[in-house]
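CO-FOLDING WORKSHEET

Operator: S.A.
Ligand of interest: fe (ii) ion
Run index: 392
Mode: holo prediction, single chain
Checklist:
[x] sequence pasted
[x] SMILES validated
[ ] output reviewed
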Amino acid sequence: MKGQVIKDGVTWVGAIDWERRLFDELIPLPDGTTYNAYLVRGSDKTVLIDTVDPLFTEALTSHLEANGVTRVDYIVSNHAEQDHSGSLPMLLARFPEAKILTTPKGKGMLQDLLEIADERFQPVADGARVELGGRTLRFIHFPFVHWPETMVTYLEEDRILFSCDLFGSHYAVGNLMGTSFQAFEPETKRYYAEIMMPFRTLIAKSMPKVAALPLELIAPSHGPLITDPAAVLRVHADWLSDLPHNKAVLAFVSMHDSTRHMARYLAEALVDRGVDVEVFGLASADLGKLAMAMVDAATIVLGTPVVAAGAHPLVAYAASIANMLKPKARFAAIIGSQGWGGKPVEQLLGLIPNLKVEALPPVLARGLPRAGDFAALDQLADTIAAKHATLN
Ligand SMILES: Cc1cc2nc3c(=O)[nH]c(=O)nc-3n(C[C@H](O)[C@H](O)[C@H](O)COP(=O)(O)O)c2cc1C
Ligand SMILES: [Fe+2]
Ligand SMILES: [Fe+2]
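OUTPUT RECEIVED:
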């Protein structure tokens, strides 16, 4: 099997992982994923852009064999993480002439991860070009998509951007060229939320470097190729901007329904006031969907019963994930129910030091929520709606 022809001389030779259901032992992958590697042939040089997860090395080598590749001049390593570099040692043994083109930082990290000899590397400066014969690769350093060493590679004549994890999606599909961006935009957002969002400000700084390129095609290292680059750039401009949407995320746990009543009441009160809301029962929620909702929410509300004087551990976990993902939310609030007392509010606020949020007054019921608690939730909804009205 030859892989998938993108155009004459440019072929996808990666692997499709239909069954993977978890990434980083954290992120649910409802649709599997792909590890994309690309073969680019000029009249003089043959290049492999990125490799695959080590478990899929066989898929990559069989694609190379089927394409009659007997010599590889360069292997571009846009990103040192093992899902793209893991098969490098085997490829370097198989193609002894091949040099690795990577950033200087990429060289160090690949050596840390894979013990590759110095002489196999040819580090590339930001903006450097390599001629392949009728085709030119340009390397654009793009740190923190999503490690410090990352770069993207632009094939000038063909106007193809090999963007590594940037613009990626965990989305296994047979025809990687024939899937419209609309079909996998949610999985692109899931990917962005969990992998890129923590580095939002840094990514926004480098984005003009790629947004200015003439682009016919974006070839990321996970998921389908993007035949409508303007569409993916448009959604990223929104995701990366500092301006959140008029939306609240409400993530809660309830053991005996008190907090659940409060969460449902607050959700309706927000909708009544024109605030969009997404509600997640954390006992069974898809953490990827929660992360996606946090991409644009202006307010994060955590709902928890008091358990052993603190928050329910699942709510503490969600707070830690929010702290890691550093969403752009401006406001946070805590609601819940207690039997006798504890410090869930202090605990949860202490878990989100990375968020630049204003803490709104909490609402804690004693046992089942009563009229006074619902009035306090109405007041919280008023406050959230009023705060959102001033967003700019
Ligand atoms: C395992 C467990 C531990 C609890 N620990 C506390 C506590 O430390 N302080 C407190 O005020 N209530 C505590 N409670 C009582 C709950 O906070 C209270 O029943 C609350 O109304 C439950 O809200 P829910 O119906 O949303 O689950 C505990 C309840 C359980 C089941
Ligand atoms: Fe990565
Ligand atoms: Fe990756």
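REVIEW:
The CA atoms of residues 244 and 296 lie 5 Å apart.
The pocket of fe (ii) ion (ligand 3) is lined by residues 81, 83-84, 165, 221-222 (CB under 6 Å).
[x] output reviewed
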